[in-house]
From TrEMBL:
Gene Ontology molecular-function annotations: pyridoxal phosphate binding; transaminase activity
GO terms (BP aspect): polysaccharide biosynthetic process
Organism: Carboxylicivirga sediminis
Lineage, uppermost ranks: Bacteria, Pseudomonadati, Bacteroidota, Bacteroidia, Marinilabiliales
Active-site residues from the entry: K181
Protein name, entry field: DegT/DnrJ/EryC1/StrS family aminotransferase
Amino acid sequence: MIPVTKPFLPPKNEYDQLIDQIWQRNWLTNNGPLVNELELKLKANLNLEHLLFTTNGTIALQMAIKALDLKGEIITTPFSYVATTSSIVWEGCTPVFADIVSERLTIDPTKIEALISEKTSAILATHVYGIPCHVEEIEAIAKKNGLKVVYDAAHAFGTSYKGQSLLSYGDISTLSTHATKLFHTIEGGAVIANDPALLKRLAYLRNFGHDGADRFNGVGINGKNSEFHAAMGLANLPYIDNIIEKRKEDSAQYDAWLLDKGLMRPAIPADTLYNYSYYPIIFKTEQDCVKVFDALAKHEIFARRYFYPSLAKLDYIVKRQTTPVCDNIAPRVLCLPLYFNLTQSEIDLICRLILRTLKY
Ligand SMILES: *Cc1c(COP(=O)(O)O)cnc(C)c1O
């Protein structure tokens, strides 16, 4: 069986050593030493000023919306994981979908301004597959119209754009470190903000609003993460460069098989150091995409239709927009298996099956 992804697991003794520390200290959660160490190492690794480790990437998004006090309408992308949209709705805001650009599959900045109304408070865009959004254009639109910018950077660990971690853009960026993500802590995530006051707000939000044992600074939630999750992150972090390098090689092998056969991949913009977090392929038709999906499944190879259907089609969306580019592309995209232990011969097998199915 070849799944679309398999979590990287560090050598068990390296994880065990960290777990032994937990037993010695008897400190399991609530901002413990391993959580602190992970936050410091992530900030150093990503060259970020501020970062808070959270329960998961969805709570990180919800905390971002709360911290910026967003209300009314939030302009967002229809091409992402469902958590991007559901977090907006969960926080009582209304998602308004701007279409995507066909090359990068990220939000189209030229479609944003027409959607801005007096109810709009923010733009929430996803660096989908770790590919940078048009961050300069988005920032300019936000500035001009007095909007906040939140990036769902769940896929963006390890991508840098113009020499800076992609996680450093926007008022707040959120990360997921779920087991299926490039860098993982089993479950987990992070919020990243450049403004220290905003970070302080996020820190209160993460811990019930606690300001000492019996004082509270506003309403909060439990967005903390545990020593065990931090331990997995600390054990995984030394391998991240190898993990990204291996995925780069695998992606090049897929490219060599598939790209000159008329299959397409989203374009990585210039000035980007890419993280190879996914291998999406865009077929000419939905029929081709489904045929390939089924043919692979027959051989116990499980690709995923990330991200399908378009989030603009969710049944709890009240404000419908037309997003023809997303409607056209989302049904034709398939993410192929990509993980650390994937072998060259497995990639060859997958590509042969794809080309045979399409009769190329
Ligand atoms: C994984 C993911 C999330 C949610 O992260 P969790 O840690 O699973 O809560 C949000 N947005 C995107 C784009 C994701 O891929």
